[in-house]
Amino acid sequence: MDSPASYGHVEHLVEGLVLRRPAPRVTWVHRRAVEAAKEHGWPVPSYSTVYVIARALDPALVMLAHEGAKRYREVYDLIHRREAEGPNAIWQADHTQLDLWVTAPSGRPARPWLTVIEDDYSRAIAGYQSTSVPPPR
Question: Does the structure show a pLDDT above 80 at 57?
Answer without folding.
Answer: yes
